[in-house]
Amino acid sequence: MGGSIIVCKDVCVAYGRQEVLHNVNLEIPRGAFLPFIGCNGSGKTTLLRAILGLVPLRRGLIETPFDRAPAGYVPQHKVIDPLYPVSVRQIVEMGLYPRRRRFRRLDEEQRNASAAALEQLGLAEHAKKNFRELSGGMKQKTLIARALVSGSEVIVMDEPTSELDEQSENEVLSHLVELNAQRGITVLMVHHNRELVERFTHTMCRIQRGNAEIVSTGKGGGDNA
Ligand SMILES: Nc1ncnc2c1ncn2[C@@H]1O[C@H](COP(=O)(O)OP(=O)(O)OP(=O)(O)O)[C@@H](O)[C@H]1O
């Protein structure tokens, strides 16, 4: 795939008779920091889920590296509301599953990675708490920490900061930009606040009228896609 890590070719996705994405052709460069922007209902989440292989394509093809290593996925936190008590630390450690031998205890490196992610997101003191007892913002941070420990080369997030206060949102976005710049991790995320993301990058994936294209706004912080 050359310099591209994900390639969409003539992708069409529909729910029943409603065609949400028509003939999307997209090449996402390796190492991109790429917010998905567009109005409500334009198909941002659908495209993200299609890239993850979570919704079937009516036509077309999406090439990804996820058969070798799954993406670190941060869903909208409402998607996860465990019936059984699961601690914040246990949720974060789930991110290690792809690298962990079944039923084996975590090794020291894995325990350190989990502790570092909890620390980075300011969750260390809440590690033993029950996930379902957390506030919305803390749940989001827990799911971001889970994606960080996964060691994936692509992190995919659906509105990862929608319930964070302004300071936490800036911190989390800065952290993701840093991760992208230092480790070359490709970051894809649906985000509603275009003005805010423009402070971090000037390259975005715009979704409108069923099509998607990578656009440059010509301003902002990053220069990585
Ligand atoms: N599981 C589903 N079944 C049927 N229709 C769906 C489903 N998921 C999404 N849709 C429809 O597909 C369209 C695109 O939805 P999608 O959630 O991808 O948009 P979005 O751009 O992420 O929206 P928002 O900004 O409001 O989160 C909408 O009209 C929505 O109603």
From TrEMBL:
Keyword Phosphoprotein belongs to the record: no
Domain named ABC transporter: residues: 6-225
Top-rank taxon: Bacteria
Keywords (A to Z) from UniProt: ATP-binding, Nucleotide-binding, Transport
PROSITE patterns: ABC_TRANSPORTER_2
Keyword RNA-binding: no
MF term (GO), any: ATP binding
PANTHER family with a match to the protein in the record: METAL TRANSPORT SYSTEM ATP-BINDING PROTEIN TM_0124-RELATED
Full protein name: High-affinity zinc uptake system ATP-binding protein ZnuC
Gene from which the chain derives: znuC_2
